[in-house]
DNA sequence: GAGCACTGC
């Protein structure tokens, strides 16, 4: 280990925090019961459950909790750790799973009152984590959540004037930074799970760095910054934070033995099925398997294969559980149900099982080594979904899922040599996503985008494309030296894509704010339709009653309106093949957006059945998402279109207008997705001359393509 | 006539 790093904790070979040493050696991953059983359940089941167990947790006898605390590795090095925190204003703490860093370090700081008159905040990339960790810490401190310990996530702020330790999502702290870029309420900011490199944490790194500097210069209360992470690219982080000290904490996990494929696998799905059955016949029936695959379709295919082969194979009975984010909650729950003794559980999961949820009792991980990744092309505005090789970090993370409860094994369906040539870390999200929302946020927080310190800077073209869009939306006054306009300031107060906040701010002009709020809420949420493979025909038949001849946007509005009117919503959703969770979420988003509109004194109005008004209003934000027909006379799905950026695109077969004949001359789409072809998703027909009326500047720029 | 990995405000 490099001598410039100090180390705290027990000594052994995993001290330096990297588990990438020997490809076939066992790695040290282990589980400390950070959370009581009820809380772990709620981690898995999501937020709804966490509310229900709150009382139970707070009342739990705190003796057990104190006992568990004292056993955590971080507790044993408490004195030295506090000394380092006292001495340094910025530091990096590398703590492996089970070190107790997230729950204990904020408490230790508070016990010593190192935060002074300010607050200690801890960011998390996921809301469920922010909530459950706050509950846990409140229980350990023998207080109710919302008192000394609180949390703040979207739609829910459980804090009070007495709160000194606050857990929140990184996105939430970022929104706070717009109103107060110096984050002056806080004296200690802990950025946890930094290795995940979400756009929000990457931006927060820069925000806290600038805040720290400015607070120093103005001699207002100093800011301590602690960056916490599991294994990560320490040198990159350390360079970024001006060579600050790095401290390593021991983790406590069970060893996981890694096996690599001896030869390259041509077909990882096939290899996965083979490996499953090889292990099935050679391992005890009570050992559960976790298989990492890329998506729903693949999971369904492998599940089918397993069931077919299982019929002709001897061996213990098998229960196969699919797990991906789009699966209805009730089916997701199957994963946590215990199987009868002598039955093997095989979980087929996407990346959701890599960090977001934890499945207990997994003994064997089968890692196909591939991930499905979304990326964005600034030139065409299209997003791409590609299956590609994962990083080494992802490989270790996946393997670690086998060592949560007991020693385990991980089978990699790629060679050790293939593993070693993979990138150490995944591409940070900020290099893969549209930048307009982030750039608007930065400008609103008073930051100069061109000099803002980022660990990884996106390509210049990408930044320029986003600045150009913001200029055309009217959010900033120039691309070269961007300053927020009055409209831009208003746009930045909405927690949504600036294209959509422009739609809401234009809505009073078109007399359709009621409808715009509903539509934007739905567009800002996940898919509201639930189409199970085996009942597709029926689902499509039921959908027909909502379909509008103008296209998908008004169809979505019709569904949302009907949902609001329905009395037994859950039942109604089931009957209509709709996703209750996502519709409820959209409903909550609408409430939040409405409150912001009221604060901005926007006139609430309805366009009734004059849906043209709503579509024109939508065009005021989505003008760059137009496409024009290039195939007069060709019927329906065969129609070819060309987008504003000049690329060819087709209507997605799931679009309401897919079969329209003749094909509409002009379209407005929500998303451009490149898979086998470039498809427009969520599409409505518009009048070609609307663009000239609604967004004349853009229309001029784009005329060449028409 | 195809299919959407995962978070978050």
From TrEMBL:
Pfam families reported in the protein's UniProt record: DEAD (PF00270), HA2_C (PF21010), Helicase_C (PF00271), OB_NTP_bind (PF07717), WHD_HA2 (PF04408)
Residue span(s) of domain Helicase C-terminal: 275-446
Keywords: ATP-binding, Helicase, Hydrolase, Nucleotide-binding
Catalysis performed (reactions): ATP + H2O = ADP + phosphate + H(+)
GO biological processes: positive regulation of transcription by RNA polymerase I
Broad class of enzyme this protein falls into: hydrolase
Residue ranges occupied by any Helicase ATP-binding domain in the UniProt entry: 82-250
Record GO terms (molecular function): ATP binding; double-stranded RNA binding; hydrolase activity; RNA helicase activity
EC number: 3.6.4.13
InterPro entries linked: DEAD-box_helicase_OB_fold, DEAD/DEAH_box_helicase_dom, DNA/RNA_helicase_DEAH_CS, HA2_WH, Helicase-assoc_dom, Helicase_ATP-bd, Helicase_C-like, P-loop_NTPase
CC annotations in GO: nucleolus
PROSITE patterns referenced in this protein's UniProt entry, alphabetically: DEAH_ATP_HELICASE, HELICASE_ATP_BIND_1, HELICASE_CTER
Top-rank taxon: Eukaryota
Protein known as: RNA helicase
